[in-house]
From TrEMBL, chain A:
Pfam families: BPD_transp_2 (PF02653)
Species for this entry: Paratissierella segnis
Protein's recorded name: ABC transporter permease
Keyword vocabulary terms for this entry: Cell membrane, Membrane, Transmembrane, Transmembrane helix
Membrane topology category: Multi-pass membrane protein
Length: 365, 530
């Protein structure tokens, strides 16, 4: 019997390889980064170490990392949900932006007591985000419009519609630059941990992560989502209400992304200041891919990404290296992790060897 | 390529033309499909390759045709070791394969399909006349009649197969690999195929004939090689063994595929189909004005050549396609306008013919696959959450009762063999508190053990739960053996009804399936019960 216990299942080998693959992808990307830095830097060792451990240099930078992580929690979970349903709906970017705009509309109203004002602002963001991501889903279910195209276009509707509102009815002419009126004090998110850059959005974001993973893996609706995503025709055949699942998931995903926009705006600014896409939605797509649509691991990936972004900023301050390099590194990591066949020959050999072992054990019995 | 097919001409009839030595093939999911298999083919022989489904026959042929690369072993052609890394190289070596699912482009003509891969050109344009000419030539040379200008989708299955064989011959195949060529044919078409194969043998061609129909293997093959569990058990002259011997070698024990069953004791109609018609997306009737009933405790078999409306009927009954015209009643209630969940709640269970697309979800676990129709029910919930503990215990129970071989309840479906995947489907559908079972090709392409289990379970449902079953099967022996009554579908209509399946045979069914005969409307009307 003891012989048998040593034999692994194919699933275990595959699990092991997915970890090795991620580590290898990150390693290759860092090596690549090192070479890139060497070509542009006078002191590549110093700059590379800034890239690696720069954010650890002081607490201020660590707080920057955490604060950059907050919006990513929302968009990462939002995209994970909708991708779990197999929908290539890429309107999280637009939903995030629209959410920020909608909560601005509510936040500039004076005279609403604090907790209610915050809740109303966040709700406005969530509802607007839901609409942005929900429309492509409804168009797909009803009229068979290809989601990837309609959702891409929704991003521009959200962006320019939002900018119109900010720059016309909501524009504060006294601001001196293109921005909305100031938020009412009662709408600004409370600080936590006694730090004026950490706000309650962190807790809301973590709650969203927990909500997302419980929903997907513990609730019947989450089972519907995952089954629709894994094999839509199987879901139809089994009697799962597929269209309803797709629309509800899109609304939910949009609500989370929209609330992310609200939290980011009300947590960090005193008025609406964006003049274009914030990229949080696109980052959410990347995180969902890295985490294979599992919300549970989003905080780690979000932290990793926020860390990289902070490194980029500090590298930018301390060296001549442009922050674009970080974007290159990010792209390379994604490419490698998305490459499912990386190491596949080795993996296949391992599985083959294991199967032969299993055969030998079975013969021995 | 340095290889010259002339070496084949130098061989005498009966000499080894090809040998495969110690072939081992392990798939990416860890499944060992071939273990040290040895296999030789002589010039001018028909060599039967038999074994249960899942024994590794198709894999071995895919290795030979360059579609799978073996982990170990070598292939010798006329004594020379060769490396066949893809089908084009296989063709250059004169090895051609006719797959179970034809590799023909439905919208193109016979001639265009024939020259695919080596298209004749005139200037920069495709030379259609030359393609027609070549097709006629090869058709004449081998005495296999085809119309070069016919469009593939208008042809019968047997005809398409002939095109496939000719295509391989046109590309210079000397060794033909036929993967279960008779599985899709009626008895009459099979006879015709055999005549053609014998002619090819006379001309010195070598043919590998994969089948699990032992009477056919006995009839046409010179030698047979038996595979079992991925290993080659033996190669013998067909004349020296009986069908019983072969089946024993295949399974390793005596098998009784003919399931013993009592006479049915039908009750009231569970399914009543009235004036049901269905038009496909091209506006053509897939079936028209169907009227039949199935009573509780009764298994009604549906015979018919593929494409005569059976798939569409099964899909409409399952709710996958809407009821366009006519009505379907289950236990007296019309299911018109119901969604699939509601239909299933009326007690309808479905084994879909396509188990990988509809029957299961490949990247989800066994546990997740067996709850897809019931996860939302109170029984599977606790405080609004899925009660995974309960789901797991239920799954383990099903894995045990249905003898599903897997790493565990959390094993993903894609890591299972075909037979075990079908057992997962059966485990779910047969435990869905069903009153009516729509079973499409429930045992197609799975091993004998799984076939036996599924057939037994269907009869158990009939006897113990009074389930009404509609059984679609391309395997006539399964239909004859497993059904109480049989209807034949031809051209979207019911053309025959046999109230007692034990009084018909494959020959009779074949005549109705090919549309050579049809019963009177009174006889057919007998399938409607009050």
């Amino acid at each position: 019997m003891s012989k048998k216990e040593k034999v692994k299942t194919t699933k275990q080998i595959e699990g092991m390889f997915s970890i090795i693959r991620t580590l290898l992808a990150v390693t290759i990307a860092l090596i690549f980064a090192f070479f890139l830095i060497s070509t542009v830097s006078d002191n590549p060792i110093k700059d590379f170490s800034t890239l690696l451990i720069g954010p650890l240099a002081n607490t201020g930078r660590m707080i920057t990392v955490v604060s950059k992580m907050i919006p990513l929690l929302f968009t990462g979970v939002a995209v994970s949900l909708i991708y779990s349903a197999g929908q290539i709906n890429i309107a999280a970017e637009g939903a995030f932006f629209a959410g920020a705009v909608a909560s601005t509309v509510v936040a500039i109203i004076e005279g609403i007591p604090a907790p209610i004002h915050i809740i109303l602002s966040l709700l406005a963001g969530a509802v607007t985000g839901a609409i942005v991501m929900g429309i492509p889903a409804i168009m797909n279910v009803r009229y068979n419009v290809v989601t990837i195209v309609s959702s891409l276009m929704m991003n521009y509707v959200a962006l320019y519609g939002g900018l119109y509102i900010i720059l016309n009815p909501l524009r504060d002419p006294s601001a001196g630059f293109e921005a909305s009126f100031s938020f009412a004090k009662s709408a600004i998110l409370p600080r936590i941990l006694g730090n004026d850059r950490l706000h309650i959005g962190l807790l809301i974001g973590l709650a969203v992560v927990i909500f997302g993973s419980i929903l997907l893996y513990k609730r019947p609706f989450g089972y519907s989502i995952r089954t629709v995503g894994a094999n839509k025709r199987f879901a139809i055949y089994s009697g799962i209400p597929v269209d309803k699942t797709i629309v509800l998931t899109s609304l939910l995903s949009g609500a989370i992304a929209g609330m992310g926009g609200s939290v980011e705006t009300l947590g960090n600014y005193s008025r609406f200041v964006y003049s274009g896409f914030t990229n949080h939605g696109w980052d959410g797509i990347m995180l969902a891919v890295l985490c294979r649509n599992n919300p549970k691991t989003i905080p780690f990936a979000a932290f990793f990404l926020a860390y990289l972004k902070t490194s980029a900023d500090s590298l930018n301050l301390t060296s001549k290296i442009p922050p674009e390099i970080i974007s290159v590194i990010q792209a390379i990591i994604i490419i490698f992790i998305a490459a499912e066949k990386l190491l596949s020959k080795w993996e296949h050999k391992k599985i083959v060897a294991n199967s032969q072992k299993v055969m030998a054990v079975e013969k021995g019995d | 390529m340095e290889f010259n097919k002339k070496v084949y001409d130098d061989l005498n009839i009966g000499e080894d033309i090809l040998s495969m030595e110690n072939i081992t093939k392990i798939y990416g999911n860890g499944f060992v499909a071939n273990k040290n298999v040895n296999f030789t083919i002589r010039k001018g022989e028909i060599h039967g390759l038999v074994g249960e489904n899942g024994a590794g026959k198709t894999t071995l042929m895919k290795v030979l045709f360059g579609q799978e690369i073996p982990e170990e072993g070598r292939i010798l052609l006329a004594g020379r070791e060769v490396n066949i890394s893809n089908p084009l190289i296989a063709l250059e070596y004169g090895i051609g394969m006719v797959h179970q699912h034809f590799m023909l482009i439905e919208s193109l003509s016979v001639a265009e399909n024939m020259v695919l891969g080596s298209e004749p050109v005139k200037g920069i344009a495709f030379d259609y006349d030359e393609a027609v000419h070549r097709t006629k030539e090869v058709s004449k040379k081998f005495d296999l009649d085809v119309n070069p200008k016919a469009i593939i989708r208008d042809l019968s299955v047997g005809y398409k197969q002939r095109v496939e064989i000719l295509k391989m011959l046109l590309h210079g195949a000397q060794i033909l690999l036929l993967d279960e060529p008779t599985a899709v044919l009626t008895p009459q078409e099979t006879r015709e195929l055999f005549i053609q194969l014998k002619q090819l043998r006379e001309k010195g061609y070598s043919i590998v004939f994969i089948s699990h129909k032992l009477n056919e293997v006995k009839e046409i093959c010179d030698r047979i090689t038996v595979l079992r569990g991925g290993e080659s058990v033996s190669t013998t002259d067909t004349a020296t063994v009986s069908e019983q011997d072969i089946s024993k070698m295949m399974v390793g024990r005596d098998v009784f595929l003919n399931i013993e069953k009592k006479k049915s004791n039908p009750g009231k109609p569970v399914l009543s189909v009235s004036n049901l018609s269905y038009k496909n997306k091209f506006g053509l009737y897939a079936f028209k004005d169907l009227n039949f009933t199935i009573r509780s405790g009764e298994i009604l078999g549906v015979a018919g050549v593929e494409g005569n409306g059976q798939s569409e009927l099964a899909n409409v009954l399952a709710g996958l396609e809407p009821i366009q015209d006519g009505d379907i009643k289950v236990n007296g209630r019309s299911i018109k306008g119901m969604n699939i969940r509601q239909i299933r709640e009326e007690g309808v269970a479905v084994i879909h013919e396509d188990r990988m697309t509809y029957g299961t979800s490949a990247t989800q676990s066994i546990a997740e696959n067996v709850i897809s129709d019931r996860y939302y029910k109170e029984e599977y919930k606790k405080n609004g959450f899925i009660n995974w503990e309960y789901v797991v215990s239920k799954s383990k129970e099903l894995i045990q009762n249905y003898l599903i071989k897997a790493d565990g309840y959390d094993a993903e479906i894609r890591t299972l063999s075909g037979g075990n995947i079908q057992k997962v489907v059966a485990a779910r559908e047969f435990t869905s508190k069903l009153k009516l079972l729509i079973a499409s090709q429930p045992t197609r392409g799975i091993d004998v053990g799984a076939q036996e289990l599924i057939r037994k379970k269907m009869i158990k449902l009939r006897d113990e739960e009074n389930t009404a079953t509609l059984l679609f099967s391309a395997d006539l022996s399964e239909l004859l053996n497993g059904s109480d009554g049989i209807i034949v579908m031809y051209g979207g209509k019911i053309t025959a009804y046999f109230p007692d399946a034990s009084l018909v045979n494959e020959e009779i069914l074949g005549e109705y399936m090919l549309g050579l005969k049809s019963q009177s409307s009174e006889e057919i009307g007998g399938v409607v019960h009050e």
